[in-house]
Amino acid sequence: MTPSQIEKIFRDEAGRALATLIRLVGDFDLAEESLQDAFAVALERWPIGELPSNPRAWLVNVGRNKAIDRVRRAVTFRGKQQQLTHQLLLDAEPPDQTSDAVLDDDMLRLIFTCCHPSFAAEVQVALTLRTVCGLTTPQVARAFLTSEDAMAQRLLRAKQKIKLAGIPYEVPARDALEPRLTGVLAVIYLVFTEGYAATAGADLMRPDLAREAIRLARLLNALVPARGEIKGLLALMLLHDARRAGRETAGGDIVLLEQQDRSLWDFNQIAEGLKLVEEALRMPGRPQSYAVQAAIAALHARAPSYQDTDWPQIAGLYEVLLRISPSPVIELNHAAVLSMVDGPARALDLIDALEARGGLKGYDQLPAVRADLLRRLGRKQEARQAYLAATAATQLEPLRRLYARRIAEME
Fold first, then answer.
1. pTM of the model
2. 121, 345, 386, 391: which has the highest count of C-beta atoms within 10 A?
């Protein structure tokens, strides 16, 4: 087994292995350090031996042993009793005796911990990006348009608060779910988004994260049935993920929606998503944001071709979405869809007004959408500058290559 194959396994399993280690050792930093130690051992042993039948359980087991070693080394006379108590807790539950179901549920426990109501929404998101999605601190800092030092301090304070305040690492009881449910759904969608369209790196997608987010949403749907927002989110992710096979070439380049081979889409998954959309929209009360977004995705999924897409209905759904969940990103998407209904000139006016308000400063999709509209209007020099701005704003290599292709096509 090559180091690159081992790294892929680690990337696929790291999130859930870390979640289990956090439960076992009760400390975010110790769990992260111990998992890195386990990965180093895997790089030494796996290339010269057989791959374990359950790589995640192996990583958890070795990581737990490394954590015990670290605790033993850290024992001092002043903290001896507390540290030894910690060690006894580590010894109490060998991962070899932990079922796969318990290991799988650890990720959901971790998300509920990150989304404790004592944390501000941005801290919940940052902590999830760092621990669940596996983004580095610099990558999380870029997502929040802040410095690496400031983000490192923010994450450190959050981890210390979990430890010192004794925030339980668990899925709360039914009556305590409600205060966290909105945050939990948001971060599950965030995990999916990072898997569906990564924020940085060489790969457009991380299917492991997308699959994990869908699995977690299924768990939540079973845990809290008859909730429109949960069904809507699950439907939204299923419908997006169903297009995965058509979204990139064998070489890793982006294939835009209008160019995708729709025969590659997963129609069984689309059928499941469409059924969930209908269930979510039939729920009493006003439509929820995720359900409306899923309805938009359903129209794309139902269209036999890009040209046959019902753009007026999609534009109308975006107007509904703007009323119930207004945001600059939704405004941007609405403008892009309106370009298919009213033409690119009308959409460009909306984009320019949005940019003037400064709500999406640093967001790479703003200059990217603007560049596409300018290209369609034949304003090539302005489009080129907008594509260059989008290139500078993104950390994702497939997007940079896409923008370079667009510039080359115009020239």
1. 0.78
2. 386
Token pair of 48 as six digits: 């010269």
Task: Determine the Cα angle at 126 with ends 26 and 240, to 5°.
Answer: 110
Report the alpha-carbon distance of residue 38 to residue 40 in Å, rounded: 5
Rounded to whole angstroms, the Cα distance separating 210 from 345 reads 35
**Is 197 in contact with 180 (CB distance < 8 Å)?**
no
CB 388 within 8 Å of CB 171: no
Neighbours of 227 (CB within 10 A): 18
**How far is Cα 25 from Cα 14, in angstroms, rounded to an integer?**
16
Asked whether the predicted pLDDT for residue 184 surpasses 60, the reply is yes
pLDDT digits 0-9 by tens, 135-175 = 788 878 876 767 889 999 999 999 888 888 888 877 777 67
Residue 254 per-residue DSSP state: B
Q: What is the Cα–Cα distance from 128 to 135, expressed in whole angstroms? A: 9
CA–CA–CA angle 319, 325, 330 (5° rounding): 60
- 3-state secondary structure (DSSP) of residue 134: coil
Q: Token pair of 244, please?
A: 């995965």
Tens digit of each residue's pLDDT (9 = 90 or more) over 325-380: 999 999 999 999 999 999 999 999 999 999 999 878 888 899 999 999 999 999 99
What residues contact residue 265 under an 8 Å CB cut-off, 6+ apart?
242, 243, 245, 246, 301
Question: In this structure, what are the phi and psi dihedrals at residue 266, rounded to the nearest 5 degrees?
Answer: -90, 100
Q: What is the model's pLDDT at position 182?
A: 85
Q: What tokens appear for 386 in the block?
A: 């907008």
CB–CB of 281/267 below 8 Å?
Answer: no
d(CA 67, CA 48): 25
What is the SS3 assignment for 283? coil
For residue 396, the cross-strand partners are 201
CA distance 371 to 345: 12
Distance CA 370, CA 350 (A): 10
pLDDT in tens, 41-91: 999 999 888 788 899 999 999 999 999 888 877 765 455 555 555 554 455
| pLDDT surpassing 60 at residue 102 | no
